[in-house]
Amino acid sequence: DSRNRTAMAEEPEEPEEPAEPEPVYVTVTLPGGEMFSAEIIEENGEKLFEELDGTISLEADLSPSRKMLVVLEESTQDLYLVDTEGAVTDITYRTYKNTRGYTASKESILEQIPGFDWASQPKFLDEDTVVYMSQLPWFDERRFLYIVELNPLSHRNFQRVGGTDVELLERTESGLKFRIKEVEEILTPDYKVVSP
Questions:
Q1: Which of 62, 118, 152, 166 gives the lowest tally of CB atoms within 10 Å of its CB?
Q2: Does pTM top 0.85 for this prediction?
Q3: Closest to 87 measured CA to CA, from 66, 69, 61
């Protein structure tokens, strides 16, 4: 039976293909009930979000380190930070206050003004700052930039970036690119507006 053994030994061995690791997802349910999943990868022992590329149906943006996600829950217009473990932190501007002492809750304004844009286009300006567009503080058809400093949490408007046609674009080395009508400019992390 030695013939069988030699025949088997001569079979060339198939090289083993390294197995592609199964994608790992974190699934998040936001307080208003909307759900999404985001892919998590590991780089140098750290968990990071995979680039979004339209994989989440909600308005969302990755922090520069890819360790945080800012997500806008459309049904409530609430803003949340999500980490790679799926922990959700509410960073919503809840009560509008103006310099004359008028205050109103987000809910009361959304009830009184159907279709009001409390928050849209959330983006990370840098690791510690989120920005978004809102119809506050003028309550007309224009949108103005709001700045959310994350640590400690604070909100303020930045009227240098505003108008009826403002689009927040991508982050660059200098800051966040935005377009008003046809003109592109950059908002720097120290809140200066510069030409690209």
A1: 152
A2: yes
A3: 69
